[in-house]
Amino acid sequence: MDLSIVILNYKQTGMVKQCVKGILASQPQLAYEIIVVDNNSGDNCLTEIKKLFAPAEELPVTTSSLLVKLEAPKPPLLTIQAKENGGFAVGNNLGIKQAKGEYVMVINPDIAVVPGVLEKMVAFMQQNPRVGIIGPKLINPDGSVQYSCRRFPSLLVPLYRRTILGNLPFAKRRLNHYLMVDWQHEKNQAVDWLFGACLLIRKSVLDQVGLFDERFFMYFEDLDFCRRVWEADFLVYYFADVEMVHYHQRLSAEHSGILGVFSKAGRIHLESGIKYFAKYLGVKLPKQR
């Protein structure tokens, strides 16, 4: 099998259905499977997804015309019901462990898949064996580019982003460097790390470096994973040849600045940041080759 697509749901049944419909409508010319994991949402998501894969009813056949409902063959579907909401890493790992594909795509429900993109991403990986993970160019619904790749952060970056220190000229320069504002987002190029909204990962790399670190409930698990891919001497690539619309809502920015710690998502983001920097305390950043 070429590709396993893992979609994690947490109270987003409508978005999951749209994402799956988009994948099916694009009719990828690949041997692929779809794995939907529900993080104990209680929203009947898996039942609704199974309905999309139910056999189509045949229309009556008459002597005047042959009216038979035709549709493309559907790929295998696997649904996984988690007993509790363990977060992004735990939920996606449940799906990855069951994946049979040579490549695994972890994709958020709020990503729109269009025809041809999956084939292009798999082809790029096949042609570049040193690349361990790629992410597409993500765009907003209005067509503007989302900055979905980053440089590795220093310890002060979260402080600058959460306090008034970020308004100081030297801090703004540092933040712009981290956010890669100065970078050309129209070309394929190796980057430090990619957002976990849509990642295509070589299964052999997963076997070597391991799954997402489940110490991170949400946030920083993508940064951590990309760092481990680099440490294993594989490349992390921003793949601008493919665009996907991301209906993104940055929950950790629900309140700006230091007020972010008063939101649940903001606190989770802060906790994950502490865990990340504690994990790599005294460890040198991997060299890009």
UniProtKB/TrEMBL annotation:
Coiled coil: none annotated. Residues 4-174 form the Glycosyltransferase 2-like domain. Pfam families: Glycos_transf_2. InterPro entries: Glyco_trans_2-like (IPR001173), Nucleotide-diphossugar_trans (IPR029044). It comes from the Bacteria. Signal peptide: none annotated. PANTHER family: RHAMNOSYLTRANSFERASE WBBL. This is Glycosyltransferase 2-like domain-containing protein. It comes from Candidatus Buchananbacteria bacterium RIFCSPHIGHO2_01_FULL_44_11.
